[in-house]
Amino acid sequence: MSDLNKIVILGTGGTIAGVAGSADQTAGYRSGEISVAELAASVPGIEEAACISTEQICNIGSEDMTPEIWLSLSKRVNELLNSDEVDGIVVTHGTDTMEETAYFLNLTVKSSKPVVITGAMLPATAIGADGPLNLMNAVAAASSDKLAGMGVMCCMGQLLISARYVTKTNSFLCDAFNGRGAGIAGYVENRRVTLYQRPLRGCLSETPFDISGIGKLPSVEILYAYPGMDMRMAEYVLKSLRPSGMVIAGYGDGSMPEQLRELISRNSGGTVFVRASRTGDGIVIHNGEFNDDSFGSVASDNLNPQKARVLLMLALTVTDDPAEIRRMFRVF
Ligand code: SIN
């Protein structure tokens, strides 16, 4: 019997499974074309890194990712990790919304076994495609007991970046991911994992988010602030869509135009507001730019707007009390 760890690779699509018309075409290709089984088979030596099996969850460009797929993916990850036959999971994913899926899994997977998410910036057919090495490194990372209890990791290139911090910060270069101010968790090199830090924020079984019985997540919209924004859009979202939550991608420390503040303070629909920042880094400080306690809002801390939305959606499965949601934004 093999003493290699048993790793299941769950495919969801993306550029890593993308096909272009020629080997030098690196834009305008079709994402989510080849199967995860074909993808794994294209990685030389992967069978020496782990005993792998594959499963296709979906095969889409990650611009079409949905909260419903997050739910089914997370449920499947939990189911697989509950089995003694599985030691770790790799998820292959489009890079465009990988950070949201990674953070969702980080908050909803209830196992300390490694979960690693990876993708590629170049399609599988490209000269120098980055997918095969990314997948090899992700499998090596998922096989390493160093990742036990570390939360979901993103592996891109040789980098390991914690799901809470990983952000796509470049639209087309291979070196597109980093952990912003929080940095990286470690490296994978020659199938060896080297770690430098442990995520301090709660994840995995430390969160109260149990999605096992949930079929639909609370609706949370994101509103982007800009000079001269037309308030009718915000008004429409608030009064007609009546979302359970709204994230404002505000200026600087989560500030927003006076008119928007007034609209929000007249909100009577029970929508919970999170103030985030469109700057891309840094923190939005509780009671900083605003008095959140009296305004009823929640500061996003250092979560970007799209990650603040993920946490707010999950928080709203447990409570709609802004004070309790503020606490969650401090600990997860
Ligand atoms: C996608 O996110 O599916 C397309 C872009 C990529 O994977 O790099």
Question: What this model shows, in words?
Answer:
The chain has about 325 residues and is α/β, with parallel strands linked by helices. The chain folds into 2 domains: about 5-205, 3-Layer(aba) Sandwich (Rossmann fold); about 220-330, Rossmann fold (3-Layer(aba) Sandwich). Helices cover about 30% and strands about 20% of the residues. It contains 10 helices and 14 strands. The chain has helices at about 35-40, 45-50, 65-80, 100-110, 130-140, 230-240, 260-265, 290-295, 305-315, 320-330; strands at about 5-15, 50-60, 90, 115-120, 155, 160, 165-170, 175-180, 185-190, 190-195, 220-225, 245-250, 270-275, 300. Strands 2-1-3-4-5-6-9-10 form an 8-stranded mixed sheet. Strands 11-12-13-14 form a 4-stranded parallel sheet. Helix 6 links the parallel strand 11 (about 220-225) and strand 12 (about 245-250). The protein starts with 5 loop residues before the first strand and ends with a helix. The model has no long low-confidence stretch (mean pLDDT about 95). The structure holds succinic acid.
Straight-line N-to-C gap:
40 Å
**The CATH topology of the largest domain is what?**
Rossmann fold
Largest sheet: 8 strands, mixed
CATH homologous superfamily of the largest domain - what is it? Answer: L-asparaginase, N-terminal domain
The coarse silhouette is: globular
